[in-house]
Amino acid sequence: MALELRQTLKLSQQLVMTPQLQQAIKLLQLSRLELQQAVREELEVNPALEEDGEGAPEEQGVSEEQGASEEQGEVEASPQVAEQDGSASDETPPAQELIDRVDWDYYFGDGATTSGPRGDRDREEEDGRPYYENLLTRKPSLAEYLEMQINLSTGDDAVREIAPYLIGNIDENGYLKVSAEETAEALGKPLEEVERTIAKIQTLDPSGIGARDLRDCLMIQAREKGEEYALPLKILTDHFDLFTRGDVAGVARKFKLSREVVREAFQKLVTLWPKPGRAFLGDDVHYITPDAYVFRTDNEWVITLNEDGQPRLRLSAYYRDLLSAGDKLGKEDKEFLKQKINSALWFIKSIQQRQRTIYKVVESIIKLQRDFLESGPKSLRPLTLRDVAEDISMHESTVSRVTSSKYVYTPHGIFELKFFFNSGLHRDGGEENIASKSVKEKIREIIKAEGEENPLSDQDLVRTLRNQGIRIARRTVTKYRQAMGVLPSSKRKKLF
């Protein structure tokens, strides 16, 4: 069989992702803050796009141009006036002198000159108020807080040299994770100086910081309490294992004391903080701004999109008029301007399409989860992305992008849109399936209503749910309980 070259025609369909379509998809999955950042970046790179401020209509821009031209005409005519009337020469300087008087260091330095009498930290607004940047602050970290106390409480140079290394090896719970011998070897310092530094750190606030384990942490706090914690301190020293098991009778037998006295000592010990470093753990609180609001009005649920903080965009009137007078532009300039205007139009259209899609998805979710609006999370029904996609005639991937990092305000709180999507569990008797989140809420309610002395085990929760028509395995109850952060029954029991 001979080989030969041959040309053939083949007709096929192919999905091509144009840059405009890629931009629309990218905007669709952005959160509110990310969208604001994307708008700012587009405003910087596209001169044909501008923000539509409330006090800056298009007519105002024309009047400002006319005013600028008239002012320039007055400046250019000022030398002639000066020749006729000498008194006017001091009042209206030439245009070049006006430009020379501009403080370019102040202008390009954003109002911050290094040659001024005051530095950046002392800058103030014109009305005397301090700059907003000078008011910004943050919560100090645990390491910064401890180092500050060391610097203020001791003048021992050896302690100040060793303390940063030890503080850097304190974990988020406040426990010291390096031994004195390892520190002495790493820093080349005498062991006595390292132990003296550790003892100094353990006297700092918060109480119990720098301990090596839970027992050491509680003992440090008990010592600081004084004589009233003498018995609790002795319990920690001699019978810590009995305390961890809550064995009041065993400790009473060891010390030959009544159970009431030992129980009071246990109650004092449980008031101590086992993880002193947790007070400095975590960032500042971040507040969520919902993308949509759902209100009840006249027995109907109304959806309102949140557009606060989102700039209103429009085409620049100047560049639009410049393109209409295309005879005055060169070919390359005209193509560049046309490209920027088309890009601006598509960007505005993509944002509008994003808002319409969010509205459709929220409307569909509210329609399918109407019981949730009426009764709360315990009435959630099973819902998938396909259900919403079929309801609004869109693809599942589009629904997934819309629900990513988007939040909605409801009468029961603010929820992420993905909260409303969950799997279902079968009910007995052929009834409609129940959502997994609803089962979690039922488990939470059952645990909240249980007695403190006899908490329900996971098998007891299975029986209680089965009596309500919900057939569920014990391992599933355990998984849901752990996901909600609920302790097992043996640790939910209150001994004191």
List the helices and strands and how they pair.
Layout: H1 19-28, H2 32-45, E1 49-51, H3 58-84, H4 95-100, H5 104-108, H6 142-153, H7 157-168, H8 180-187, H9 191-201, H10 214-225, H11 230-238, H12 240-244, H13 248-255, H14 259-269, E2 292-297, E3 300-305, E4 313-315, H15 317-324, H16 331-368, H17 370-375, H18 385-392, H19 396-403, E5 407-410, E6 413-416, E7 424-425, E8 434-435, H20 436-449, H21 458-467, H22 474-483, H23 489-492
Parallel strand pairs: 2-5
Antiparallel strand pairs: 1-4, 2-3, 5-6, 7-8
Helix pairs in contact: 1-16, 6-7, 7-9, 8-9, 10-11, 13-14, 16-18, 18-19, 21-22
Stretches where pLDDT is under 50 for at least 5 consecutive residues are: 55-104, 106-125
Percent in helix: 40-55%
Q: What does the overall shape look like? A: extended
How many helical elements? Answer: 23
Give the C-alpha Rg. 36 Å
Q: Helix- and strand-based class?
A: alpha+beta
Q: How much of the residues is beta strand, in percent? A: 5-15%
CATH superfamily of the domain at 142-280: RNA polymerase sigma-54 factor, core-binding domain
CATH topology of the domain at 142-280: Arc Repressor Mutant, subunit A
Oligomer: single chain
CATH architecture of the domain at 142-280: Orthogonal Bundle
CATH C-level class of the domain at 142-280 is Mainly Alpha
Q: What is the arithmetic mean of pLDDT?
A: 77
Number of strands: 8
Give a quick account of the main beta sheet: strands, pairing sense, barrel closure: 4 strands, mixed
First-last Cα distance? 93 Å
